[in-house]
C-alpha cells in the first residue's frame, strides 16, 4: 500500500486570518459620519451656513437651493440630528447656524480613520 500526500501551494497572505483594524462600532460611526456628508444638498446647506457668522433664515436656504421646501426640511432635520447645525424659531421662521465645533470634531474623526486606512 502506497501513501500519497498532496501538497497545496498557498499564495502568501492568503487565508492568514486578515481582520479589520476598525472595530464594528467605529466602522458604523465612520459610515454615519460619511453618510451625513454624502448628499450634495447637505453639503450646500453646510457651506451656506458656514459662510455666515450668524444665523440664516430658512427662507434664504429655500431660495438658494434647487429643491423644494420639504426636501430642504428633510436635510435640515438630518443635519440637526447629527448635531452639525442649530435652529432657533422666531415666529413662523426658523433660523439656522452651523455648529463649527461639531464640524471640527467630525472632520477630525474622518481624517483620523482615513489616515489609519491609508
Q: Can you offer a commentary on this structure?
A:
The model has no long low-confidence stretch (mean pLDDT 90). The protein has helices at residues 24-36, 40-50, 58-64, 69-81, 100-117, and strands at residues 56-57, 85-90, 93-98. Helices cover 53% and strands 12% of the residues. By secondary structure, it is mainly α. Strand 2 (85-90) and strand 3 (93-98) form a beta hairpin. The longest helix is centred in the C-terminal third of the chain and has 18 residues, at 100-117. The N and C termini lie far apart (55 Å). It has a single domain, classed as Winged helix-like DNA-binding domain superfamily/Winged helix DNA-binding domain (Arc Repressor Mutant, subunit A).
Subunit arrangement of the protein: single chain
Would you identify the regions where 5 or more consecutive residues have pLDDT less than 50?
Answer: none
Quote the distance from N terminus to C terminus.
55 Å
Q: What would the average pLDDT be, to the nearest integer?
A: 90
Please tally the helical runs, counting DSSP H or I stretches of 4 or more residues: 5
Spatial strand order of the main sheet: 1-3-2
CATH class: Mainly Alpha
Beta-strand segment tally: 3
Rg, Cα atoms, Å = 24 Å
Going by helix content, strand content and strand pairing, the class is mainly alpha
What is the CATH architecture descriptor? Orthogonal Bundle
Number of domains: 1
Q: Note the beta-strand portion.
A: 5-15%
H/E series? HHEHHEEH
Largest sheet: 3 strands, antiparallel
CATH topology: Arc Repressor Mutant, subunit A
